Amino acid sequence: MTTPDQTATPDLLRPHAEQAFAAELRALAAADERPRPPSWRLSPWAVVTYLLGGTLADGTVITPKYVGPRRLMEVAVATLATDRALLLLGVPGTAKTRVSEHLSAAIAGNSTLLVQGTSGTTEESVRYGWNYARLLAEGPTEGALVPSPVLTAMRAGSLARIEELTRIPSDVQDALITVLSEKTLPVPELGTEVQAAKGFNVIATANDRDRGVHELSSALRRRFNTVVLPLPADEEDEVAIVARRVEQLGAALELPPVPAAAEEVRRVVRVFRELRSGVTADGRTKLKSPSGTLSTAEAISVLTNGIALSTHFGDGVLRPTDIAGALLGAIVKDPVADTAVWTEYLEAVVRERPEWADFYRACREVTG
Length: 368
Known about the structure:
The protein has 368 residues and is of the alpha/beta class. The chain folds into two domains: 69-228, Rossmann fold; 235-367. The protein is built from 17 helices and eleven strands. Strands 4-7-10-3-11 form a five-stranded parallel beta sheet. A hairpin with a 4-residue loop joins strand 8 and strand 9. Helix 15 crosses helix 17 (357-367). The chain is globular, with a radius of gyration of 23 Å.
């Protein structure tokens, strides 16, 4: 069975996708006989197989990187095979960044051409900048120009990733319009332009739930095909996602396997889903929802923190006392309103579940 190729990068805390899953990518490339778009390492079919998992003819098992509707991944990959850019849209924790990284790794073999969107992202991060020492000494020359990841991708016929596009100020966002529509980037200081090589495209991610969002202009939005990534459809899917990621993160952090983790994974996922949806799993009790998103990514963080506590300060068995503190921090973002929501949930729901008695006591202890 093929597993993430961590042995190739033993000292890296967080290997890039093309490093961690190098063995799977090699196996897919060797087995892939379908046509590939220009500059692609794999065919669209093989890229989707890499994302969703499967078993190759030689018995190699491809582990799933995304759990969700196959059609969404097919639409995303088909978009990148055209001249349209791809926008992955969804609330925090829907695996937008993970899908973006793995798409780049499978298609281009390089997921590192990344622009991280923040309120401080400048136009130079999207277009190009200058080495000011050389600029002063030589004037504007090709040698003084510092290419952005987008410009580097254009020259190489590769994929550029832009994370949190809606956090970037609107005037900086619009610097992408010419790149996406004309596939060129003018460099007026040199009296020239960079034309994109075949295979170039852009994958952007965005969500409209966090603060600090800058809406995309209609001109820019038209230049993307948008794929909305939903939260996991049912509890079993979310439990599987969380359990797999917790296991992978634990291995990367060299944490030993922890007994009883499966039980606590399911419990944390149940709590998050009930508070997120505003109703208990059996549909009998209406609930108030806290201000946070309670994403799958936060559930993974809560459990990874609990495993670290259990390993280093406990008896090596994951217990409610190991996860209660991190769970409180994930749920209570507003100290007043969210504390009231969480306390009501504990008293009305958790307390009434006899099998959750230890969990109730641990959460009450940290909540106060």
